[in-house]
Amino acid sequence: MTASYPRVLSIAGSDSGGGAGIQADIRTITNLGGHAMTAITAVTAQNSEGVTAVELMAPEMVLAQITAVMDDFGVDAIKIGMLGSPDIALAIAEYLKTLDGIAVIFDPVMVATSGAALADDRTVAAFEKIIPACSLVTPNLDEIERLGGEEAISRFDAPFLVKGGHGAGDLLIDRLIDANGEIEHWEGSRIDTRHSHGTGCTLSSAIATYLAHGEALPAAIEKARDYVRASLKAAPGFGAGHGPMGVPQI
Fold first, then answer.
1. What is the per-residue pLDDT for 126?
2. Greatest pairwise CA separation for the chain in angstroms
3. Can you give the residue ranges of the Pyridoxamine kinase/Phosphomethylpyrimidine kinase domain (predicted)?
């Protein structure tokens, strides 16, 4: 189901600096005309220079947040970001089996922009239980390697948007791939800024929101990429490290 004011649920961690995670998702979903709902998996203490503390939610609390909004408001699309533990990941995987017809975008967050690890090997292994229920998985180049490389995509019945932002050079390529090979790709020049915290969160939540508005997957990806690029250019310059992106006019 889609709606003129779509309901988008973000399952992710909280970023005290406001650049990524739940805060980036709420900002993006709201700016793109959706109603943002949340299930917080972890509370992090972080700023533009790094993560200094992480407190995980109990899996039961994560599920309680999800069912509270699902049972009352309903959901048109779900974005999944930082999960933090294998127990949370496995609980989410089991819950997703109960859903039907809802777009699920999974950003397999493993490392913060600052370099802090946000998923251990057991959590990454548990991601494989989530992927079959997804409409799209959005790993960057480092994350796809930890998932087993592009050849691992053939094991899943889900498309992957392999993001090229961590690649070398000024020309970056994002590739939409499924078990049969590349479906489509998008090219773009690198935007010269250190204020790129939250790009993956913003992209995945934007794709979820555009899908909830009724866009087809390639169009949702293209519009979301444009939104991220506009957000990078609108960065306010906060922080001494990798600061948050801005909120573009749309």
1. 92
2. 48
3. 15-245
